[in-house]
Design goal:
homodimer, 148 residues, mainly alpha, Multidrug-efflux Transporter Regulator, Chain: A, Domain 2, 2 domains, three-stranded antiparallel β-sheet, 3 strands, elongated, DNA-binding
DNA sequence: ATTGACTCTGACATTAATGTCACGGTCTAT
DNA sequence: ATAGACCGTGACATTAATGTCAGAGTCAAT
C-alpha cells in the first residue's frame, strides 16, 4: 500500500474541508443521492460543477441538507423550504416577509400538536394508573367484570 | 316552505347532537369526503352504518378528524396516527391487561415525539427571530411603519 | 490501458394522500 | 312518483418525494 503524494483530493480535503462530491454529501447527511439531486432540481441547493460536470458541494451543504430533511419531515414542501432558504441566504426583506407567516403558521401547528400530545400523555398515564389500582384492588378476588 | 313536524332528523340532531353524515362531517372539518373515507380505510376512524349503509358519525368525529388532519400536516403518516387514536379512543377497558405494555410503550414514544417537537419548535423560533432582527436592523433608516 | 468506484442524465416505478368521475342506491319535499 | 340532493363503491389520475435501473462518462490506482 504505497501511499505517495498522489492523493491530492484527500489532502485538499484535510487542509480546508473544501468540497464534497455528491456521494460524500449523501453519506454525511443520510439523504440519498437521488434526493439530493431532487433538492437541487427544486432549487433548494445549488452546487458548483467541476470541469467534467461533477457536482461540487461546500461543507455547509451538509447543514443545509440536514435542515431540508428536517423540514420535510415536518411536513413542509420543498417549495416552502425554498422560500426559507432564499430568506436566510439573501437579505431580501421581500422574501422574508412572504415567508414569515409560513413559519409562524407552522409554529402554531407545532404548539397545537405538543399540547395534544401532552393531553394524550396524561390521558394514557391516568389510564395506566387506573388499571394498576384496579389490579391491586381486585388482587384477591376474581373476574368481577364491571363497566361504567 | 311549510315546515311541519316532519324533519325528524333535524329534531333528533337538536335534541342530542347525535349523528353526522359524511357530508356534514366534511363541512364541519374541512376534510374532503374522499379523505374521510380514506381515513376510515386506514383504520383511523370507524363510523357506524345505518340500515341503508350510510356512514353515521358521532359528534366526537369532528374533533377526531381535525386531529388527524393536524397530524398529517405535521408530516405524520396515517399509520402512525392510527396508533395514537387507538390509545385515546378505545376506551373499552375489557382488554386492559393485555394492552398495558402497549400503553407504556406508546407513552415512551409520545415523550420522544414531544421532545423532538420542542426541538424543532425552538429551531423555527430561532429562525423567525433572526428574520425579525435582520428586519429591525435595516429599519433604522427608512421611516417604514409596518406592523400588524 | 484497464479496472473499479464513482458520477452524470434520463426514464420508469412506487408510496401516500387526495382529486375526480361514473354508476347506482337512499331520502325527502313536493 | 319524481326530482334533487345526498351517499355508496370502485376505478383512474395526480402530486410530492423517493427508489431504481440503464447507458455513458470520469477518476484514481495499478
Amino acid at each position: 500500500m504505497s501511499r505517495s503524494i498522489i492523493n491530492l483530493r484527500s489532502a485538499i480535503h484535510l487542509k480546508e474541508g473544501w468540497t464534497l462530491k455528491i456521494g460524500e454529501l449523501s453519506k454525511a447527511t443520510g439523504a440519498s443521492i437521488r434526493s439530493i439531486r431532487y433538492y437541487e432540481k427544486q432549487g433548494l441547493i445549488t452546487p458548483a460543477r467541476t470541469e467534467s460536470g461533477y457536482r461540487e458541494y461546500h461543507k455547509f451543504a451538509v447543514e443545509q441538507v440536514n435542515t431540508i430533511r428536517l423540514y420535510l419531515k415536518l411536513g413542509l414542501s420543498t417549495e416552502q423550504i425554498a422560500g426559507f432558504l432564499q430568506c436566510v441566504l439573501m437579505n431580501k426583506e421581500a422574501f422574508c416577509n412572504e415567508v414569515l407567516p409560513v413559519y409562524r403558521q407552522k409554529l402554531k401547528e407545532i404548539d397545537e400538536q405538543i399540547q395534544t400530545l401532552v393531553r394524550i400523555r396524561s390521558n394514557l398515564e391516568d389510564r395506566i394508573q387506573s388499571i394498576l389500582s384496579e389490579q391491586t384492588d381486585n388482587e384477591s378476588m376474581e373476574g368481577t367484570n364491571d363497566e361504567h
